[in-house]
Write a structure and sequence with these properties.
mainly alpha, 5 domains, 3-stranded antiparallel β-sheet, two-stranded antiparallel ribbon
Length: 517
C-alpha cells in the first residue's frame, strides 16, 4: 500500500502526479517506479490516456475515485461528447483496467488529421505561480492539447520543451524549471491570434464543464448535423447540402492560414473532412473539427451548447422512429401489410422462397435501397427468411492414408542418407523439408502419429551430429593415411573444444587414442 502518493493539483495530468511521486521518493529507475505503483515492470507511460487508474485512486483520499481522476486529470473529456456511448464505455474501462487496450486506435486518434503534440508544452508564467503556491511545478493537461496554443490567463503563446511526449524509450518526466533552457515559444500568426485565443477558451470550457451528452450511434450525429444545416439555411432542396456555402462560412470565420496550421486546409477534395462531417457519419470526428464547423455556422453561441441542443433533438427523433418501427407487424393473414413500400413488399416475397443471402443475390439494387432507407426493418425481416439446410461437411483429407504415405517416403529418405556422412543435421525440420509439406505437417501433428513417431526416433541430436562429423574426418584421414593434430582435426570437422557435447567429447578422446596407437 502506497501511503505518500501526492494529491493531484488542479488540472494536473496523472502522468505528472506519478512523476512527482518519483521525485519525492528519490526513485530514479522507471521500471522500479512502475513496479512499486502497479506491480508491473513492463508498463509504458502515457501522458494523455493512462491506464491503472483504479489502482492510483486507491492511493488517494476518499474524495478521489477513478471517475474523478478520469474527468479532471486525463484528456478523455475532449473525446467524450463526440464519441458513441459504446466507445466511451470501452474507453473508461480501458483507463480503469490493468489490461492493455488499443485505446488510441479505438478513439480514432492515430488516424485523425489533428496531430498530437510531440513534446511537452508549458507556460512559464503559470509555472512561476505554481512555484509560489505549491513550491513545485507540474504539467497541466490543457497545455498538451492540440488547439490550446495560447495561455488565456497570461496572454502569451506556450513554450515547447525538449521533453518528448511519445517514443519507445519514454518515461515519467517531472516538470522542471530547467526545461526553460532548451525550450522555444510557439510561433503564431498575428493575423490568427484572436482565433487561437478563442479556440483555447473553447477547449478550457470543454475540460472544465464537459456536458453529459449521450450519443447512441452515428445516425444520431448525422441527424444532428443535418438539422443544424437545415436550420442554418444551408440545404439545396430538401436533402442536398450546399457545401460551397458551408466551406465559405468556415473560411470566412477562421481563415485559411488558421486551418492550415491544424492541417485542416483541404476543403475542396471530394472526401475532405468538412464534407464528411456534413454527410452521413461513419466515424467520429475530433473536438477541433466539431468546434470549427459549429462556431462558423452559429458564431453567436457556444459550440458545445449548439452541439448538445441538436444531439438531444436527434435523440428524440430516433426514439420516436424506433417506437414507430416496432409497432406494425410484417404479415397479416399471409398478405403483405399495406403500410409497406413497394420495395419492402417485393423483399418480403423474395425471402418467402429464398434465404436472405439468395434474395440479396437475386436483386442487389433492391437490397441496397432497403439497407439505406429501412435498415432496421430489413434486419428484422431477414430473421423470417427461409433457412437453407446446412450442407453435410465431408472430410477433405484421409489422414491415415496421408500418414502412411509420409512414413514410406521418410524411410526411403533415411535409407538414402545412411551412407552420406556429408549431409546436414537430420533434424525434424530437415526431414519435413525433404517431404515438401512443411506447413501441413507442422499444423497437423495430431493426425500423423506414425510420421511424428519416426521424426522423434530418427531426428539427430547435436551430439550425434558432431560424432558423425568427427567420423567423417577420421575416415578421410585414415583413407589418406594422414593424421592431423587434435586442434586441426576439430577444425576440419567444423568444431571446437568449447562446442563439443559430452558424448562427442568421449568419442573424440577415443579417436585420439586410436591416432596415437
Amino acid at each position: 500500500m502506497i501511503s505518500n502518493f501526492p494529491t493531484p493539483y488542479p488540472d494536473e495530468l496523472i502522468y505528472s502526479v506519478i512523476a512527482r511521486y518519483a521525485i519525492h521518493n528519490g526513485i530514479l529507475s522507471p521500471k522500479y517506479l512502475t513496479e512499486e505503483l502497479f506491480k508491473n515492470r513492463n508498463l509504458t507511460p502515457t501522458y494523455d490516456l493512462p491506464s491503472h487508474i483504479d489502482t492510483l485512486a486507491s492511493y488517494l483520499p476518499d474524495q478521489y475515485n477513478a471517475l474523478t481522476l478520469i474527468s479532471q486529470h486525463t484528456l478523455l473529456p475532449i473525446y467524450l461528447p463526440f464519441q458513441t456511448d459504446t466507445v466511451m464505455h470501452y474507453a473508461v474501462e480501458a483507463l480503469r483496467s490493468e489490461k492493455h487496450y488499443p485505446l488510441h486506435t479505438k478513439l480514432g486518434k492515430n488516424a485523425s488529421l489533428i496531430k498530437a503534440v510531440s513534446f511537452f508544452r508549458f507556460c512559464p508564467h503559470c509555472w512561476q505561480e505554481q512555484i509560489e503556491q505549491y513550491g513545485e511545478v507540474y504539467w497541466k493537461r490543457s497545455w498538451q492539447i492540440t488547439g490550446y496554443e495560447y495561455c488565456t490567463k497570461h496572454k502569451s503563446a506556450l513554450f515547447i520543451s525538449s521533453i518528448p511526449c511519445n517514443g519507445l524509450d519514454r518515461k515519467f518526466y517531472a516538470a522542471h524549471l530547467n526545461a526553460l533552457q532548451h525550450s522555444s515559444q510557439l510561433i503564431i500568426n498575428a493575423h490568427d491570434l484572436d482565433r487561437h485565443i478563442e479556440l483555447a477558451e473553447l477547449i478550457e470550457e470543454l475540460l472544465s464543464h464537459s456536458p453529459h451528452i449521450s450519443v447512441r450511434n452515428f445516425p444520431m450525429l448525422s441527424n444532428a448535423y443535418f438539422n443544424l444545416l437545415k436550420d442554418s439555411d444551408l440545404l439545396l432542396g430538401h436533402k442536398n447540402i450546399n457545401y460551397e456555402k458551408v466551406r465559405q462560412l468556415v473560411v470566412d470565420y477562421w481563415g485559411e492560414s488558421f486551418l492550415q496550421y491544424y492541417h485542416l486546409g483541404d476543403l475542396l477534395s471530394e472526401n475532405c473532412w468538412l464534407k464528411n462531417i456534413c454527410r452521413k457519419h461513419r466515424k467520429a470526428f475530433s473536438y477541433l473539427e466539431h468546434f470549427i464547423v459549429l462556431k462558423a455556422l452559429v458564431p453567436e453561441r457556444k459550440p458545445i451548447d449548439i452541439y448538445e441542443q441538436y444531439i438531444r433533438q436527434a435523440s428524440i427523433e430516433l426514439t420516436d422512429l424506433d417506437q414507430a418501427d416496432e409497432a406494425p407487424p410484417i404479415w397479416v393473414n399471409n398478405k403483405v401489410d399495406k403500410i409497406l413500400s413497394e420495395d419492402q413488399k417485393q423483399w418480403t416475397k423474395l425471402i418467402q422462397k429464398n434465404s436472405a443471402k439468395q434474395a440479396r443475390q437475386c436483386d442487389p439494387a433492391l437490397y441496397a435501397r432497403l439497407y439505406r432507407n429501412h435498415k432496421d426493418w430489413l434486419l428484422l425481416t431477414n430473421q423470417s427468411a427461409v433457412i437453407l439446410p446446412s450442407a453435410i461437411t465431408k472430410t477433405r483429407v484421409d489422414w491415415k492414408k496421408r500418414d502412411r504415405q509420409f512414413i514410406k517416403q521418410l524411410i526411403k529418405i533415411r535409407d538414402q542418407l545412411l551412407e552420406d556422412l556429408d549431409s546436414p543435421q537430420w533434424t525434424k525440420k530437415f526431414f519435413i523439408k525433404l517431404l515438401g509439406s512443411v506447413s501441413m505437417i507442422e499444423k497437423n501433428w495430431q493426425f500423423l502419429p506414425f510420421t511424428a513417431a519416426f521424426l522423434d526416433r530418427y531426428a539427430e541430436s547435436v551430439g550425434c551430429y558432431q560424432i558423425r562429423r568427427l567420423t567423417r574426418t577420421f575416415i578421410r584421414q585414415r583413407t589418406e593415411n594422414q593424421f592431423c593434430p587434435p586442434s586441426v582435426f576439430l577444425r576440419l570437422s567444423g568444431l571446437s573444444p568449447e562446442r563439443l557435447t559430452p558424448e562427442a567429447r568421449r568419442f573424440f578422446n577415443h579417436i585420439e587414442r586410436e591416432i596415437k596407437q
